[in-house]
Amino acid sequence: MSAPSFLSLLSSAQHIIITCHRGPDGDAIGSTTALASWIRRRYPASVHVIAPNIFPDFLKWVPGAEDILIYDKHEAEVRPIVEQADLVIMCDHGELRRMWTLGDVIRPLLPVGGGQPGAVRCIMIDHHLDPEPDIADLVISHPELSSTCEVLLRLLLEIDPPRGSLTHNEAVSLYTGMMTDTGAFTYASNRPEIYQLISILLSYGIDKDKIYRNIFFTYSQNRMKFMGYMLYVKLNVWKKAHTTIMTLTNAERRRFGILNGDTEGLVNMPLQILGTKLSIFLREDTENPCIRFSLRSVDDFPCNEMAAEFFNGGGHKNAAGGEFWGSMDDALELTKRAVQKYLPLLKE
Q1: What is the pLDDT of residue 1?
Q2: Among residues of the chain, what percentage have pLDDT more than 70?
């Protein structure tokens, strides 16, 4: 896990920023808040967690989430903090472009972007495939693991065996990321070691049932009605392809008063239909003229390969995402071509 190099980079830093990808999820929020807390307890450096944009309301209870700085809409306040950094720690993403405009600010600070060698160091802690080369001094990336929170927990256990010397709140953050990135341990979670790690986190007195409720039992009336509408009106089942498609426009968001995070988890629901192997959710972006894609699958269907080939994205075998700059109609046509291309795998 490269613990000595990790500790060496931390010990020489004075101004640390910890970043995550655009559209932060539970793993991004869990890993960044846990790591920030752990560093603050051990080092005198200033530490700021910076997210490219807002994160879902149902994650605002996570310990430390209230201190996360949002770059989007607050550039004048946050940019000087970014430019002062001498160590950037990228959590839950392996590419600068996944931070959008925040990544554009960070790149020139690093040697790969023309920055002075050694002036700003970079650590990558991630679990996605194919990290961007030459941007990090230290890459701690393990695609075979369930989540970035699992990667981070293993690193901290290596530094302080046998329990990682965590606080209760850090254990809460790490469990949150592991739970959300596995769909409450319904995929990417067959390895026995995961449950050994969960046992360690439970030893810190975390309430895993309460964490689950905080994430999944926070529906508003509008969200419940919206979900019914999406499943009854907008769900299309392509039975011969074992695939489901749902679309969402911004007009429909306004109709149901959808809040940030209200669409989370919706893409997983059609996989409950008997025989379904792939669920695709297309939604208009609220800030840019593009379509966001979420893909979920079961068994061996490679969501990440489809996302990379057709939707300018990527991810994991059973959970991936992407984007398309254009209209919803054009995005649907692209989706049809993608499903047709992968039809032999879907029919297996």
Answers
A1: 62
A2: 100
pTM of the model: 0.90
Last residue of a domain, one of 214, 238, 256: 214
Read off the CATH number of the domain in which 334 is found: 3.10.310.30
Residues 68 and 176 in one domain: yes
- Evaluate if residue 83 carries a pLDDT over 90: yes
Q: Can you tell me the distance from the alpha carbon of 241 to that of 178, in angstroms, rounded to the nearest whole number?
A: 31
- Parent domain of 206: 3-214
